Amino acid sequence: MIQRLHVTLLDVEGALQRLLGTAERRGFHVLQLRAEVGAGAVCTVMLTLEGTRDAELLRRQLERLHEVREVSLAAG
Amino acid sequence: MADTGAIQSTVRSGAQWLVAALEAEGIDTLFGYPGGAIMPVYDALVDSKLRHILVRHEQGAALAADGYARVSGRIGVCLATSGPGATNLLTGIANAYLDSVPMLAITGQVASGLMGTDAFQEVDIFGMSLPVVKHSFIVRRAEDVAATVHQACAIARSGRPGPVLIDLPKDIALARAAARATQPHPARVPLAPNAAALAAAHALLTHSERPLLYVGGGVGMARAEAALRAFAATTGIPSVCTLKGLGAIDPDAPGHLGMLGMHGSPAANHAVQSCDLLLVVGARFDDRATGKLDTFAPGARVVHIDVDAAEIGKLRSAQIALAGSMPLALAALAQPLPIAPWRKHCAALRALYANRYDAPGTDIYAPALLRDLSLAAGDQAIVSCDVGQHQMWVAQHWHIHSPHAHLTSGGLGAMGYGLPAALGAQLAQPGSCVICVTGDGSIMMNIQELATARRYGIPVKIVLLDNACLGMVRQWQELFFEERYSEVDLSDNPDFVALAQAFGIEAFGIDTRAQVSGAIRRLLDARGPILCHVRIDPRANVWPLVPPGKSNGEMMDSAA
Asked: Does the CA dihedral B28-B527-B455-B63 come out positive or negative?
């Protein structure tokens, strides 16, 4: 099943590694990643993932990462 | 980040800022081992009041810090140099991650300009540790060191606790800088769970005829034992607990049925299978607790209380999710419940499946020895286990009155945990009776820490249950691999009494049941570290047992 997540996180050392690593370790395959660092060292990331596990659970697992500010599941 | 906005007039090196920040955090004990890249920190320690415990292997440092943290409720701190020092910490860091123990791991790193060049003793410990830390930092400027320490400590302590790593390049540790003074961050208190969810949980409780508390390690980590016990007393709801939940409920409470799961009590497992409401408190449906998940508590609705919202619904969906403060949730739900028939049923289960200690023969029966030792040591004694059969015997037979008095590697299952964790526990509570229960396989994983016990005169009491094999693996090979024993024989073990004595530790051995009471007295009377080597039957198994992949209702109680 394809899932799209929109993530806002602080652009600190290791932030993307942590984000992608968490998604992969929790059972999702990263199909697409688009990341952009904006003002205030805030990074916005659009992740497209494939997996059979509950995406809402992954959203909460990503949300507890220290640098992550917001995670939402995108429609479609 | 809390800061005063003032510029410190004192210029310090990065290493000195690190030590000053640790002192400001109220940390008094570090466990570590020096080496090249961490040398500036060790130099700064010379002028510090911090107590440094020199272990004999970095894994021992991390596991001792873990034991220190579990008993004290404070952050355990370990430090090591770059490369092998850092990688040797990893098992202890992973242990803290899986058991939610607040820990600060500080590693030296090669100088910034050498990072990424495969320099001597360079590894990417930041990258290697990512899956097993709550958060991690590489400090890039000396003026950021103190603020990073305070931030790391706040993260390690807050919410669901865990380990945080700070990697400190050598040039940053040596560089001198005037930094903005920072203070420890105030503790963040978890919020009360959602009011509507609490009301829904209240309604489920009111209508339940067979509610059951499923208690996990989160209760101890939240220091919520008193709230839980008050809740259980008010509601009268019977309870079961996980390996890490042991001690959260008084083991003598009439409604407590003991540990559930693979080596749990039949009373606990049968109650879970027949309850109609499972009130999960700080537990996470670990596979060792649930057995075959889709047959676990088949008729139960689930109310799940946890400070970590990501644990709710991870493995078993909950009808009601109560994310947030455990004491507040329990207080809001407490009410007397008309469940007398269910309580009577659970009391009958408890009586029916009470442990028995009348094993035939004259060989030492480990469960009876552990039961007798725990009773003789008293309610305040702390037991630190290694991993294997003896770990399960302790869980089944030790009278554990506090989750902080039972140190066990529950999530990682790391052989070698017991001795260094016991050392950390004893240093956290110097006046307590600390007993390490280990096996002949496990103790060899960190046997070198006997030297630490000797050096500092740490009076831990070590009970080494020696069955001359890797008992738990042997048991599984017997039961599930058609007795095809593969690489489990340890009959060429060293003479453990002579070995302990070579480290300067008092030691003696016993091998008959008649010697047990004298051995217990000698252990408890000892003023310094002491080891008792106990020869037990290599064929002894841990019973009962839920076979892998089976339901908790399908327990075995013998090999037949």
From this structure: negative
The 3 state secondary structure assigned to B446-481 is: CHHHHHHHHHHCCCCEEEEEECCECHHHHHHHHHHC
Q: Would you call B170 a catalytic residue per the annotation? A: yes
pTM (2 d.p.): 0.96
Domains in chain B: ranges and CATH: 3-182 (3.40.50.970), 195-352 (3.40.50.1220), 366-535 (3.40.50.970)
Overall domain count for chain A: 1
Element (H, E) at B321: strand B320-323
Does A66 sit within 8 Å of B135, measured CB to CB?
yes
Other CB atoms within a 10 A radius of the CB of residue B6 amount to 8
- HEC secondary structure over B471-511: HHHHHHHHHHCCCCCCCCECCCCCCHHHHHHHCCCEEEEEC
- Residue B333: its H or E element: helix B326-333
DSSP string, B198-232: HHHHHHHHHH-SSEEEEE-THHHHTT-HHHHHHHH
> Which among B131, B138, B310 has the least Cβ separation from residue A57?
B310
CA distance B339 to B232: 13
Do the beta carbons of residue B111 and residue B171 sit within 8 Å?
yes
Taking only Cα atoms into account, the Rg of chain A, rounded to an integer number of angstroms, comes to 11
The phi-psi region of residue B43 (left if phi > 0; otherwise alpha if psi is between -120 and 50; otherwise beta) is: alpha
- Percentage of chain B surpassing pLDDT 90? 95
DSSP B23: H
Phi, psi of B321 (to 5 degrees): -105, 125
Residues of B with CB under 8 A from a CB of A: 126-127, 130-131, 134-138, 140, 155, 159-160, 308-310, 313-314
pLDDT tens per residue, range B75-111: 999 999 999 999 999 999 999 999 999 999 999 999 9
ipTM for the complex shown: 0.96
Interface of A with B (CB under 8 A): 13-14, 17-18, 21, 25, 54, 56-57, 60-61, 63-67
Pairing of strands B29-32, B76-80: parallel
B508 as an active site residue: the answer is: no
CB atoms within 10 A of CB B378: 11
What range defines the domain where residue A55 resides? 2-74
Give the integer Cα–Cα distance in Å for B365 and B358: 9
Question: Who contacts B4 (Cβ-Cβ below 8 Å, separation ≥6)?
Answer: B180, B181, B182, B183
Segments of B47-195 assigned E as strands: 51-54, 76-80, 103-109, 135-138, 163-169, 176-177, 180-182
Q: What is the mean pLDDT of chain B?
A: 96
Where residue A22 sits, what CATH number does that domain have? 3.30.70.260
Distance (Å, whole) CA B30 – CA B353: 44
